[in-house]
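Narrative summary of target 7.
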Amino acid sequence: MRDTLYIRLRDTAPDAPTAYALVHSDTPDSPAPRPSVIVQELPLDQVLVLGSGRRVVVFVPGVDVRLTRVTVPARQAAKVLQAAPFVLEDQFAEDVDTLHFAIGARQPGGSFPIAVVARAQVDEWLAPFTAARVRVAALVPDTLALPWQNEGPWSVLPDGGQVIVRNGPYAGFSCVPDDFELLLQLAENGTPAALRILVSRNDATDYTGLNRALELLPGFEHPLEALIRYWKPAQSIDLLQGAYSQRDDLQRYWQPWQRAAQLAAVAVLLGLGLNIADSARLRREVATQQTVNEATFRRLFPRETRIINLDAQVEQQLRLLHSGASQGGLFELMQSAASGLSENPGLTLRNIQFREGALFLDLSGTDLQVLERLRGWFNNHRGAKLDVESADSNENGVQIRLKLTPVAA
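Modeled conformation, tokenized:
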């Protein structure tokens, strides 16, 4: 087995100090944590030289990767990944065409974990490796390299100017240390969580002040060492999927013959008839759209568990909506959201969505204090219940996703 070069990529500048470690005959799927490894730092361009002939695994900042999940009526990962951008597009302020989606293993409940990151960010991460002709075997968010056990404690990695937390099989967040306790409370949603803290040898912090069940895992010198020791590929998501799959690297070997291959392909297509290819393409597009439509219908009308005639069932639900009072809930939630945001300035609305009787708000701001004020405001005003679905904090501010649901009078 080839040696593995692990890299923690924080900056893509050629002279940026970059942490790396060489592990001999690595077996990342072993059930036991890896033994201690020696982490060193060199400028990135010098680290890349070490990648020649070795398997290269790169850990990237999880703060740049959004972790979510999707449930669609398909079991094949390729079809789920094809439908995911359409199903999830309402959750993002950005155009989904500018985003890259990667999928994890199917979960017991039938959902699939999804990692979403800007394509421009992935291009930036991979650019130095492409220029150096170094092939990356895996590109992994550092959040998903922390240890995780079902029903176990949340994993926490203090890392200088930030804290990385894994609070679910495919969930986590990163924040500056000053916001850690507040974000922790928001993620706990009222139930204190047990914490497993990965402590470096030179960390003298007293964590007992967190007032939670604690398990300390000491003994590493550098955060990269902790990521290497506990990363399990089967419990993470490799971002190198779709257009970034390393199988596409084969293109560079046949690129000198590309023109001849293209001409040959044109001749074959003309011989077989372009109408056959068009027909196959249209069938695939129809099948994909049908999958997306059924997923959207199930998301909007969860009680409709069986789809026989989608068009007829959609018309039936629309008639029920027009004859009922469902729209009143939307207007009341919109009014509550507008009042709450106007009374507690400091947050900017980036995206809004109404589905399944709830209003979802994507907000950005400069700090988390205004979120606490907003929570207090909704606690004192009847008519809508506020739940914090996610809240991330970094040096560029905070990004928050809220859910408003009606409360009976």
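Residues 248-254, 322-328 have pLDDT under 50 and may be disordered.
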